[in-house]
Amino acid sequence: MEHETFVSGIGGQGIQLISKMLSVAAMESGRHVMLNGVYGGEMRGGKSLATVVIGSRPLRALPVTAQASAAIVLHPNFWAEPSQRLRANALILADSEIAAQLSPLATQSFVAVPATRLAREIGNPLVGGMILMSAYATATGLVTTAQLLAAMRSLVPAHRAQHLATNEKAIEAGAAAVGPGAYRVDLDATRVAA
Question: Which of 136, 121, 137 is closest to 169 using CA atoms?
Fold first, then answer.
């Protein structure tokens, strides 16, 4: 089985980094992974969308994923297009501060995580994306918190090492914000058409 996840937001929120974290963690756990990033030339504020496909066997997914089983939403801008490509039974995980601006289908599972509030409590409002990614990983069981921490450490360059401790706190906070396995993804099961 393949599990597709959209990560949507705006440039500057770390969309591409947290998507790469999930991808690296999944590869380290022995899964097959495809990562595709789409973003504008702007440093901040432009469209940023990543697709992560994780499977138990070699992937058949195309570089542009037509439908996804889940989404992590950090900002409502540019959300309309990926929201139309979600399966009817998809899981959507979003920052609680933007939850009211999203319109999930009644058949979709929607989880609001207070990522912005938790990021402020940690002392760095820029780690909201890591909190959401960690909450997603915990809720789905796609990767463990330890695997996500290891992936983050491997991706942060040496000249950014001062952020490691804050990133670790963010990942731990995200894992604590949701029920473990509440939306478990079984990659060895056969997909039921949505």
Answer: 121
Q: At what angle do helices 164-176 and 128-140 cross, to 10 degrees?
A: 40
pLDDT 10s digits, 79-135:
999 999 999 999 999 999 999 999 999 999 999 999 999 999 999 999 999 999 999
Residue 50 pairs in a beta bridge with 7, 37
Domains of the chain from N-terminus onward: 2-176 (3.40.920.10)
Measured between alpha carbons, how far is 3 from 55 in angstroms, rounded to an integer?
6
Residue-by-residue DSSP string for 137-157: HHHH-SS-HHHHHHHHHHHS-
Query: How far is 120 from 34, CA to CA, in rounded Å?
Result: 32
How far is the C-alpha of 17 from the C-alpha of 24, rounded, in Å?
Answer: 10
Token pair recorded at residue 105: 């289908």
CA distance 173 to 148: 13
Torsion of CA 21, 23, 27, 29, to 10 degrees: 60
Note the pTM of the prediction, 2 decimals. 0.90
Q: Is 42 helix (H, G, I), strand (E, B) or coil?
A: coil
Q: Which two tokens stand for residue 17?
A: 């980094």
Cα distance between residue 190 and residue 104, in whole Å: 25
Burial class (CB in 10 A: 0-12, 13-18, 19+), 85: middle
Count Cβ atoms below 10 Å from residue 98 Cβ, excluding itself: 18
